[in-house]
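The aim of this short unit is practical: by the end, you should be able to scan a pair of folded records and say something sensible about each. We start with the first protein, listed as its amino acid sequence and then its C-alpha cells.
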Amino acid sequence: MLTRRRFLGYGGAGILAVSSGCRPQHLDWVVNQAEASPEINLSLADKAKLKTQKNLLLGYPVNMNTLSDDFFAWRRQLLDAGINTFAYNNVGNPFKDSAIPNNTHDFEQELILRFGKLYGFPPGNTWGFLSHSGTDSNMHGMYMGRTLLKGRTGVLPKAYFTKEAHYSIQILRDLLGLETVLIETLPDGGMDPNDLKQKLADNPSHPALVIATIGTTFKGAIDQVDRIQEALKGYTSHLHLDAALFGGYLPFTAHAGEVSYQSQSNPALARYDSIAVSCHKFFGFPSPAGLFITTKSHFDEFNELFSQIHNPEYIHHVPGTITCSRDAVKPAEFYFFSTPSAMDKLAEDARSMLQNAVYLMEQMQSHFSYLQPTRVNDRSNTIFFRKPSDRIVEKYSLATMHLDINHQKQEYAHVVVMPHADRKVLTEFMTDLDKDSMPLS
C-alpha cells in the first residue's frame, strides 16, 4: 500500500507520473462546436468567465474562494506519486487492509480520526469514511440507524424529522422504506422537542430514527440536540445529525458544542449517534464529498448485522459501506484540510464569515427593514428576507421559497454568507438593493 511517508519521498515528476514522451504532441483541446449536439453550447471561454463572477454567488452554501497555493502543491505531490493518473479505489472499510493495493485508506483513516477529534468523538472509538456527498453521508447514517434499531428490536423504526430538514432526508426515507413521523417546528424553524415527545408517545411500538438538522437549508435553524435527547429517554432510538454546512464551521467557533459528540457537562454522555458534514460547502473542497463519522462500537454492531446481508469474501473483509467502489482521490486531497495550517485558515474563515453575517444583518435592518430580514440565531450565516427583484435574484443566484409567515404565504430569498462573501461583495449587493427596490406593500 502506498503510504504518506513513501510517496512524500518521491521527487520531481515521480516514478508514476505520465511521461511527456507518451502523450501526443499539441494536446491542446479546442472545443469544436460543429462536433457538439445542436442544443448544447460547448465553450471553455464561458466557463473561464465564471472566475470573475464567482464571488457574486450568495444564495447557496458554497465557498467560492479559490483554494490556497498549498492545496494545489499538495495536489501536485499526489499527482507525482501517481494518484489520479491511474485507477485508485477505496473499496470497503478504510480501517481494514484492502485487497486492492492502489488505495488511499491510510489518508482516509487519518482524516477521519482528526475530524473525529474535532467533533469530540472518543479516542479509540471513532469510525467513518469520506463519502461522495453530504446526501451519501446522510444515507449511511440513516441506513446504519435503521439496521441497528431493527437488529435490536426486530421492528423497523419510524423516521422522525421536520419539514425544514433537507429534501434529501425525504428521498432517503422513501428509499429505506420507512414511515415518516413529521415533527412540528418552533418559530425559528428548529424541531419542537415537545412535539417530538408527544409523537414518540403516539408511536410506542416502533423504535425511533431521528434526523436532526444543524443549520436548516433555508432559515439556518438549529435543532436542539440536548432537548431531543431528553425527549428520547426511555425509547429505543438512533439520532443522526445532518450538519452539512454548519458542521463545517461551528467547531472553529465558541459554539463548537452544537456539534460535539460528547456532552460538555458530562463527557461520558453521547449527544448523538452519527454525523454528516459536507466537504464542498464551508471547506470549499472543489467537488462534492462528505464526512460520515460515528463510533467504532456503533459500527462494529452495525457491521455484524450488515455481514448477514453482504459478505464479499473476495475483498477480504465485510466492507461496512453501502457503496462498494469508492473514490480514492478525494480522501487523499481532502486530507489537506485536516492539517494544522489548513485548520488555522478554517478557523479564520469561520470568524470572518460570522462577523460578515452580523454586518449584513445589521445593515439590512437599518436600510432595508421593509424586506423583513431575519437571522434566527447567532450561530447562523444565513439571512432570509422578502424576495427582491428578479434582476437581483439572478445576479446573485439567490435561492427563493414561499414561506408561511403569520399565516400568509410570501416569497422569500436568502443570503448565505460564505467565506468569499466579504464586505465588498455584501456592499455591492446592498447597493443594488438600494437602486432596485421600493418598499413592498
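Turning to the second protein, read its sequence before its C-alpha cells, just as you did above.
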Amino acid sequence: MEDVRFLVVDDAIFMRTVLKKMLTDANFTVVGEAGNGLQAIEMAQQLQPDIVTLDITMPEMDGIQAIDRILEVSPNTKIIMCSAMGQHSKVVEAIKKGAKDFIVKPFEKTRVLQAIYNVMNR
C-alpha cells in the first residue's frame, strides 16, 4: 500500500502514543497529532492527511463536532473514530456524519489495521 499519512487525535497522550507506535510499526507515516477537535481541524487543513484517527470524547471540541469541519478543510481525508466501549450511539452518529470506520479502545492491532484497509479500499 502506498505511503498513507495519518493525523492521530486523542486527548490522552498515552492513547496517541500507543496508536502512533502501531501505525509506525506497520510502516505508516504519522504526520501530526492533536489533543482536541479544534487542533484536529487546524492540523487537517494544514497537513491534508489521508486518514484521521479521531477520538470521540475530548475537551474544547469533541470528535463528533469536528467531523464536518475536518471534511470541509480536508475533503479527501478518511476518518476512523476511536471510541470507548459503550459509545455505540456516538459511533453511529459519527458514521452518519461521514466517518468511515471505528476502532474500540483499548486498541487491538489487527482491528486497527483492518479499519485502515477498509477505509483505504473504499
